[in-house]
Amino acid sequence: MKKRKFIISLIAVLLILFVPIPIGQYKDGGTKDYLSFTYRIVAWNRLLEDGSIFQKTSVYWFPENYKDIGSLWESEKPDMEGSYILNSSHEVDGRQGIAWEAGLYYVSGSTTLSVYDADWQLIKSQDDPFAAFTAEVNHIGDIDVYEGEIYAGVELFLDGEASNIQAAVYDAQTLELKRTYMFDKRSGQTEVSGIAVDPDHGCIWMCSWAEDDSGSFLYRYDLEDGDYLGKVRMENAPKLIQGIAYLDGYIYITSDDGDAGEDAPDHVYKCQVDTGLEVYEVVLERTVYDVIRQGEIEGISFDKDKNQMLISYNRGAIIVKGMPKGFYIGYDSEIHEVFVYDIIIGSNDRITKVRGSLPRTLFFENVILLPYRPFIRTARASNTAPAKTNQNAYPASTATTPSLATRPRTMRISAI
Question: Which residue in 96, 363, 367, 406 could disulfide with 108, CB within 3.0 to 4.6 Å?
Fold first, then answer.
């Protein structure tokens, strides 16, 4: 009898000492707080300045468990290294693409090419880039510039349907056409929304805006002679891909998966290039929440001198099947802008706090937190995409943001 009472008393003491009680949820993004006499569990879910979400479950033992939540946050918060911070925006004359090389910015419109200096002043434009083509074309997508040549995906595009797809190469100084490469019909590609030069693997990549199976692949051509090298499938491919860029072993793609009418933002994704692997694992890189007004994301590039990400964005026009069909209230024309983001680089462990999948003690997750699992969000750090605008579940990136001095980690890739 005494032994039974002792066991019951011991269990009661252990419960009092070790069972955490929910004590509140904060208006910082949804952080939840659980307190016991001996420790404290904080399920962090806090919105950061760059639009990413800091998510982590932390355990604080006595006497740290009695500190106020502000003090605990000071010990946990990332220093914002490994993030994108909006620097500036610049109105330009083209709605499709952006590229950078040697201190100059190159902008593509649907039927134009333009060059801007380092201060975003227009210095040259080409209003008839299709004059030398033999096949009928009327549309340029996102572009890239490499060793003094502009690479553009060109096609005949009408109401969401494309034909005469090809890669066109222009002289970056004169903006005159130098050569073209027709796409390979074996690829199954039905549209080209952008092109990126990948000098590390000696190829160019083409992406497709199409909502059919063509939009699930990236298409690879030889950089020297334009020969078709094959295509790679993207796992959980973003929809309505608009732009593409290559940097430090990664392909970055922009997706028009938001909704301007609902003020829902578009997104930037990335995947790693490794021609020996079989599947591209696409990860969400950033939610573009901080443009002047939501509209249609387009091209992407990187200023390697200033370590900046460049994103072209349109606002004001109502887009139906890729074509402008009228304007939103308050607009009588479409505005084209390039948004410039500083890329803040830090050590891997600090960046992982923001973007990595964070390990947790299995005991606390599976035993002590069991009664409160419905209230605790799985600890995964990411630039969270709104569920209503992104139907796929994209894993968070565990690698650092692009750096000219760092190399990316390994992911899976598929070559078909």
Answer: 96
